[in-house]
Amino acid sequence: MQPATNKTTKGPELSCARAPLTLKTQVMNEQGEWQEQALACERPLTLYLDKRELVTLMTLGEDPEALVLGYLRNQGLVEQLEDILAIQVDWEVEAAAIRTARTAENLEEILSQRTVTTGCGQGTVFGNQMARLEQAELPQWQLKQSQVYKLLQALNDYNATYRNAGAVHGCAVCTAEGEVLAFCEDIGRHNAVDTLAGRLWLEGLNPEQAIFYTTGRLTSEMVMKTAQMGISVLLSRSGATQMGLEIARKLDILMLARAKGKHFQVFSADQRLELDAPPPLRPGDRK
């Protein structure tokens, strides 16, 4: 069955290929009892850029067209939205066909410099990305501690697939006021951030004071992809890697990690965080 299509008012012709996010299976618990359990789906999606096989992504399949779009943008393979004529996803053949008006002139060179990174989702980073980011000027605005707490509270209403089945990462683009502009879950955090990048690109959203939230760890690629979206505040409930921290410091990104409840750790650009709502000290805590 061919997927339905949706021609956006501005931008490429997109399919609307949706797939189930979870399925049920029978599992045995520690008492020897059988019970029903939801599993997060995982499916391959091979990208063909102008009939050339590019990469295969393992994805949940929540919003595959936005995933493809964000992936192309974050890897520097397409610079302008109008350069993409169509993205057609067909789950029967597990493929996404991308037609463009033009691709990067140095496509061969870019592909030859691809680096496969560690972690779930097997993210990729193409050469010369840091050189481009170092030329960009990210917004340097002040975030309040109370705004972090408000945002973490608002995010409790999301992560539906994780609560149902586990085994996925969630990412969100939010405002300083605690509004969640876009949220996505996927097997790999790299896919989730690419999907959000694609959605923002399609909708023309470029908030000046945006926060990127992820349930996953802050690796070099996650920091770089956040910066490519023009976002300079990064919030995670997990930890950070050494290279992720180095890049965040170089780009003056306010990085907060291990954020759960009222607790978090500031890894970089601490001068951009106003501590206006410190929680009371617990017994045994040192001032």
UniProtKB/TrEMBL annotation:
Localization of this protein: Cytoplasm
Location of the active site: C120 (cysteine persulfide intermediate)
Listed Pfam families: FdhD-NarQ
GO molecular function term, any single one: sulfur carrier activity
Swiss-Prot/TrEMBL keywords: Cytoplasm, Molybdenum cofactor biosynthesis
Chief place where the protein resides: cytoplasm
Gene3D superfamilies linked: 3.10.20.10, Cytidine Deaminase, domain 2
Any single GO BP term: Mo-molybdopterin cofactor biosynthetic process
GO cellular component: cytoplasm
Function: Required for formate dehydrogenase (FDH) activity. Acts as a sulfur carrier protein that transfers sulfur from IscS to the molybdenum cofactor prior to its insertion into FDH.
PANTHER family in the record: FORMATE DEHYDROGENASE, SULFUR CARRIER PROTEIN FDHD
Family of this protein: Belongs to the FdhD family.
UniProt name for this protein: Sulfur carrier protein FdhD
Organism encoding this protein: Marinospirillum celere
